[in-house]
Amino acid sequence: MFEIIKKNINIDFLSRVNLFFIVSGVLCIISLLLIFSKGFNYGIDFAGGTLVQVRFNQPPDLNDIRNDMEKLDMGDVIIQNFGDENGIIIRVERTGTNLQEITDKVQHKLLDTYGHDKIIVERVEQVGPQVGDELKKKAFLALIYALIGILLYITVRFEFVFSVGAVAALFHDVLITLGIFVLLGKEINLPIIAALLTIVGYSLNDTIVVFDRIREKIKSTAGKRTLRETINMSINETLSRTVLTSLTTLMAVLALYIFGGAVINGFAFTLLIGVIIGTYSSIGIAGSLVYFMKTRKIAKT
Amino acid sequence: MNSKFRWGIIIVLIMVSLYYIFPLDKKIKLGLDLQGGMHVILGVQVDAAVDAKLTNTLTQLKKEFNASKIKFTYIKKIGDSKIDIALPEDFIGEARKIIEKNYPYLRETGLDKNNNIMQLMFTQDEIKRTENYAVEQAIQVVRNRIDQFGVSEPLIQKQGETQILIQLPGINDPDRAIDLIGKTAQLRFHIVDENINPRDALDGDLPFDDIILYEQVFDETRTKIIQKIPYVLKSDAVLTGEYLVDAGVRISPQYNEPYVSIRFDSAGAKLFDEITADNVGKRLAIVLDDHVYSAPSIRERISGGEAQITGNFTMEEAKDLAIVLRAGSLPAPVEILENRTVGPSLGLDSINSGVKAAMIGVILVMLFMAIYYRVAGLFSVFALLLNFIFILAAMSLFGATLTLPGIAGLILIIGMSVDANVLIFERIREEIRLGRTPVNAIESGYERAMSTILDANITTLIAAVVLFQFGTGPIKGFAVTLSIGIIASLFTAIFVTRTIFISLYLNKKLERVNI
């Protein structure tokens, strides 16, 4: 039998609970500090603005384009390679009253300078400030609704303590993923929110598997083992599955990250870190939190 | 359920699915981000519709007062919602009667007794009604224009209170489409006020019932405005595009240049006849969306109800102008709130790299499963392939759209869908370790993993459904593939693999399971 996790593995996870809490706590605090000090780098979905993706038939000089764009007097313009060296994106931050005018200007300038046969405008995205604010609100609500829905479901299926543990673990995953985004200065746009929600679903999946085992063990061996033993055993017994599923998911996501193309890259990146953090939290955090809360509750009553 | 019956279900499902997915390019609807196309959200400026209605009411009031011989000093708009009427005290009663009878949507908000000024406003209902009507009509007009422009399978619908969502798949010339959709196309005819020199008017010497509008002169490429010629016009339009019944492109024999020929209905033709008769020698400015296109002199009375709009058009511009005039004007200007356009080449690139990533992902996961769980792993690989077929079939059945994030969802499903099998197989291994017989181990492995699988997948489904509710376009596509994928993977991972186990092992005395 081929095994990554040996069958009689018995790690005392709960004895390392302080370590997990410290590591996670520090990561969460750093993430919060980053988010509040540096702030999110919102893409045009949320910040509003214009993005024009252009393909050249040979690598263009970004400085030339930058100079050209500056002449148009459109405020802040960001120009960078996208995908490969023949592709660029031009991002105009300003959202005037007339979005169309901005794209017209950019496109005409490029066509004038390089000619119709040398470039293809592959993508134009424009979001007015009004829509950007609306999307920001909707994205935030979506995350909250998803968390509430999950909280309710787990409370019905398990106990409230479990749902608090699960949702706290999810917050932890989303927060740290966002923290990494801020640290790397990556853009937050709609697909990233979709990826975050997927991470919420995925990480929860992992956590539920552990919880399910705890529940089963509590039922079948009530009174024979301490809660500590039960939780430890459950994490250990499901460890092989947790690691395996993360591996297969990571394989798929890695394929997406490497071969999926530039447009989907940020999305794949989010899934990549999300899956790793989510796996860690369902092993190290979710169960520990349940243990922590349950023992405190027992101590109180 | 015996294994024959189970296989029956699986085979029927596979057949039905194959029927629904082939040929792929016809059965699977691609999103705008994959096939190329335009996604636009227009905001209708409903305030302008109310304002236009107010201006209109003003003109009507003037006409009606004149007809009823009610003398007034002036009738004018105050701000953007009020009308002031200054008139001698003796006429106030009569004016009020007319307003109450013919203008029930006007509310008198005050009377300045010293100066005899009546102040009127639209009722709240009327404002609401005008706004709604403006949006509905704008949708109608946009639809007409797009139909005439010729786009296959356009989607045009109201979004929220004042927004219009437009999706145009596979469009080649997005700029032209935007111009066509966004043009208000309000056509008006104004008499030029020949008594005022435009230069004096610009210096501030503008009579209160006159307006200044400009003619734009473009350079050869028709992208830059090189000159703006001012005109002083009588502010009341003598004729508008409302009376227009047809518009078409003609080529002028003299200059060999395209122009747009328009035709009025009988009422419009009569008006045009009167106007030209009354104003011989004056110039008549043709104004489209507040720009003067031309201002030809009226040499003689023109009957028959036909007119020409000239303006150095290219053939394409003339065609588009004819389209927008035929399709009618927008009741209010629209503004582009959001525009996402993807060219066909990028769409194709995205499909290619998406398919490549999916293939590599599938192969990696399959290899891993086959190595790790050997024969049982192969079962799950088979389940994974079926999963793909079922997901695509379900998408085709529900008419769901495959987007780039949707492809990403499919890839993610590859990784996640083997999860159910991993859960089951790990459980079976555990049961074997506990000393159960192979058949027993398989049975209880499936049974005991079941509640875990359900709980884990339902929670993911919750996230996917929320995503669907909140998302637009491509993101919705992701939520759809994810949801369908979760359900399909539950079926394949639980039902299909179990069927294989049953038919292979159940009735045989099994020494060991290859897992």
Q: Can you walk me through this structure?
A:
The complex is a heterodimer of chains A (301) and B (515). Chain A has helices at residues 17-37, 44-47, 62-71, 99-114, 129-157, 160-184, 190-220, 227-259, 265-284, 286-300, and strands spanning 41-42, 49-56, 77-82, 84-92, 119-127, 187-188. The longest helix of chain A has 33 residues, at 227-259. Chain A has 2 domains: 13-43 and 131-300, Multidrug efflux transporter AcrB transmembrane fold, CATH 1.20.1640.10; 49-127, Alpha-Beta Plaits (2-Layer Sandwich), CATH 3.30.70.3400. In chain A, helix 7 (190-220) runs antiparallel to helix 8 (227-259). In chain A, 48% of the residues are buried. With 301 residues, chain A is an alpha+beta fold. The model of chain A has no long low-confidence stretch (mean pLDDT 86). Chain A has 10 helices and 6 strands. Chain A has a 4-stranded antiparallel sheet with strand order 3-4-2-5. Chain B starts with a helix and ends in a 9-residue tail after the last helix. Helices cover 54% and strands 21% of the residues of chain B. Chain B is elongated and about 110 Å long. The model of chain B has no long low-confidence stretch (mean pLDDT 86). A 4-stranded antiparallel sheet of chain B has the order 7-8-2-18. Chain B has a 4-stranded antiparallel sheet with strand order 3-4-6-5. Chain B has 3 domains: 3-36 and 344-506, Multidrug efflux transporter AcrB transmembrane domain (Multidrug efflux transporter AcrB transmembrane fold, Up-down Bundle), CATH 1.20.1640.10; 48-125, YajQ-like, domain 2 (Alpha-Beta Plaits); 183-340, Gyrase A, domain 2 (2-Layer Sandwich). At the A-B interface, helix 4, strand 5, helix 5, helix 7 and helix 8 of A face helix 7, strand 18, helix 11, helix 12 and helix 13 of B.
